[in-house]
Structure formats: structure tokens, C-alpha cells
Amino acid sequence: MSYVPASDRYTKMSYRRCGHSGVKLPAISLGLWHNFGSITPFVIQQSILRTAFDCGITHFDLANNYGPPYGEAERNFGMHMERDWKPHRDELFISTKAGYDMWEGPYGNFGSRKYLISSIDQSLKRMHVDYVDVFYHHRPDPETPIEETMGALDQIVRSGKALYVGISNYDAEQTREAVRVLKELGTPCLIHQPSYSLLNRRIENNGVLATLRAENVGCICFAPLANGLLTGKYLHGIPADSRAARDPRYLKADNITQEQLQKIARLNEIAIRRGQSLTQMALSWVLRDPVVTSALIGASKPEQILENVKAIENLTFTEEELHEIDAILA
Predict the structure, then answer these.
(1) Is 261 in contact with 230 (CB distance < 8 Å)?
(2) Rounded to whole angstroms, how far apart are CA atoms 268 and 262?
(3) For residue range 152-171, what is the model confidence (pLDDT) as tens digits?
(4) Is-cis flag, bond preceding 68, omega within 30?
(5) For the chain, how big is the Rg over CA atoms in Å?
(6) What pTM, to 2 d.p., does this model score?
């Protein structure tokens, strides 16, 4: 296989400091959530990964239960590692997670030390790697003491199975507590992965974004395109090849309301005035705040990668644009 020369590849992407750390992540990262299980042909997956890398996307994000079926995205990624990525391992930032249900019985869910350490061992085997760059606890566990969960993350780093740790889907109070415990253990929390988009501004209002800023923790946003709603593809109906039509696990056709579509159409008008597609503006908007290290995208075809990375060409919004966007979404 051939790659774009590194001198060209890395000039196509901007890299942002992740909290108070030595890590820089690409402004656009690639998530392997939707399209790296059994439903996507291997050659398409390969083309998506290669295109992303050629565009300067160095961060590939997984989780133990990504598929379908559970574990399939990591298994497929392991094959991609063997075929393409072993020589480039030191240029990649690979993450995975555990916290949701993964296997039957009392030890395959939530946040016990037993589950997290078993899970990272399984993930490394599936992905054919010796370590991941960051390992996340995927969601808070209401029953396991946070000291146990964070202690497991600390142990995973000290064992060499991960270089850094992070959390996902934690609220502000849970985030502060996790950051405190990890700091006391000597393994700082590198990054938080919450949902954030023009249509989901919860972390602005519930204190998560302010907490990350205060604690100098990085932020990588998942679903910045609201599971495809902010691509503009649904403005004139539901395309046959869209996620809502062919894979409604995360976006059901019944949930695409006329009120939403009217707001999206008005947002699209602003994007056109900015010289961007709606997709590009939506990504630029979540990246407008320096506390956001990266926007995590999914892709079902390489062309989507090429469009999405153009978002970094215009990350600046005027006050008038921001006020207009706020008025539309109020």
C-alpha cells in the first residue's frame, strides 16, 4: 500500500494539546463505532482507515463492545493492524474502552477491577497490539466505589497495557471525583469523551465543560454530527443508504422531526454563508472552544473523511454567527 508522504500528511491536519499533557490529538479523530463490525465489507473499512491516515488523522477510537457483534470492531481492527498498521504503530494514537455489557455473567459489565482488567486483556488480543494509548472507563458505575474503578485504570497504566486513561459519559461531579482519585494515585486523567453537538449542548449546561477546563483535562466529543442529522442528508427525506434507513440502532426515522429539520435547514443557511457544508460547520462549532481537543467522527465511506477534515479550514465564528445559531437552537 502507499501513503501520502508524512511531510504532506501532517500539514493537512491541525493537532491540539490534550489538557495539561504532552499529548496532541488531531482536531478530527476517527471512531470505529458504527462501521467496523460485520455490516461493513473489510475492503471498505480498509479504505476508510487509509484515507483518514492520509488526511493526518492519527487517532483511531474503539471500545470492547463496538460491532456488531460485540468485539467485532476490535477483531477487524486487529486484522487491519496486521495488514497495514504495524509499521506505523508509533504514528498512531489508539484508544479503547470498557464499561458497557460485554459478556454474560456478573463480571462483564460496569466498573469493577475484575471487569476492566479482563477487558483490556481481551481488547489487546483482539486488536493485535501490546498496548493502547488511552483506555477509558466507558460509563460511571453507580454501585462500584470510584476508588476501585480508578484504581483499576491506574493499575492498567502501571502494567504497561495503556499509556493514559480517560473517562466517558461522566457528569460534572463524577468527573471531579474521578480526576481527584486518579491524581492522588499518580495517573492523571488525560481526557473525557462526552456527547456534544449543535443539537446536544448538555455539557455546556451541566458543568462538564467547565469542569474539564478547570481541571485541565482534555475533551473529545462523540456524535458531533448528531448521528448524521447534522450532515444535511435528511433535509429532503431519508436516503436509502442513510443510517436511519439501513442501520437504525442509533438514529430512528421516527425521531427525525419536522421541528428538527426546520432548525437544521436554518443552520445550513449559515453554513453556506460561511463557505462550508453543514457537516463542516457542525464540526467547526464543537472545535471553536479550545477545551475541546478533538471531534470524533464516524464514516461509512472514504469521501466522508475528505469532506469532514475540511472543517479545520475555518474554525472561527463571528459573534453574530454564534448569536444566530443560539437563536435557532433556543
Answers:
(1) no
(2) 10
(3) 999 999 999 999 999 999 99
(4) yes
(5) 19
(6) 0.94
